[in-house]
């Protein structure tokens, strides 16, 4: 029986604008059945409210519970901004929950010393930085983090102008590279640029989708038959 992977989405970006998560799951977990659960407004709400309210936590909990009710074997959260809300949601379900940036944060914690966190949505900076610091603490490492917001780039991407989005992100990354030894792209929507950036700045650039889906594939393989 193929395993059911439920993906929790907090905007339509990975459903309609960037289908990369579907592509990666098709490549790395080819026999899985994929279900999508979308609250297309919750990320916008968190951005508008500049943080995660109890109401936003409840919305993520509802998504996770809907996924469990649909018979998901594992739940994959595709949104970094809502990471803390996903932690709350995971306590309300028995189904295992994997966050897209979990494995990336662990790698940054293991390999980075001065880590630059680059985001295009302000609400992603805190959760991503906190996750990296938490993972570093778990393994007894200390590192410094520098946060950088590429303001306006996400709305440019959502309007369909990929080229402008990409040039904005590249410009900020090149500036950030002056003071760090690794850059973490805080959102999956920036990940297409990881290779380009690595060539331009000659530093490790981590992006969540492939690392995250690779970790998901390992977790799926560990599920009982």
From TrEMBL:
GO molecular function (one): amino-acid racemase activity
Classification via Pfam families: Asp_Glu_race
InterPro entries reported for this sequence: Asp/Glu/hydantoin_racemase, Iso_Racemase_Enz_sf
Superkingdom of the organism of origin: Bacteria
Homology family: Belongs to the HyuE racemase family.
Name assigned to this protein: Asp/Glu/hydantoin racemase
Source organism of this protein record: Amycolatopsis camponoti
């Amino acid at each position: 029986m193929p395993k059911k992977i439920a993906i929790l989405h907090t905007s339509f970006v990975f459903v309609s604008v960037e289908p990369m998560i579907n592509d990666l799951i098709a490549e790395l977990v080819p026999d899985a059945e994929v279900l999508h659960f979308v609250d297309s407004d919750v990320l916008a709400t968190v951005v508008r409210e500049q943080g995660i309210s109890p109401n936003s936590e409840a919305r993520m909990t509802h998504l996770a519970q809907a996924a469990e009710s649909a018979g998901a074997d594992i739940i994959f959260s595709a949104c970094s901004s809502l990471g803390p809300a996903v932690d709350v949601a995971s306590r309300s379900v028995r189904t295992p929950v994997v966050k897209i940036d979990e494995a990336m944060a662990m790698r940054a914690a293991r390999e980075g010393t001065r880590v630059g966190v680059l985001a295009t949505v302000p609400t992603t900076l805190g959760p991503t930085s906190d996750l990296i610091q938490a993972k570093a603490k778990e393994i007894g490492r200390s590192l410094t983090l520098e946060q950088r917001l590429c303001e306006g780039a996400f709305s440019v991407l959502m309007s369909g102008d990929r080229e402008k989005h990409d040039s904005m992100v590249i410009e900020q990354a090149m500036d950030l590279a002056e003071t760090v030894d690794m850059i973490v792209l805080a959102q999956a929507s920036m990940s297409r640029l990881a290779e380009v950036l690595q060539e331009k700045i000659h530093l490790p650039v981590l992006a969540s989708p492939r690392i995250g889906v690779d970790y998901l594939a390992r977790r799926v393989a560990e599920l009982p038959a």
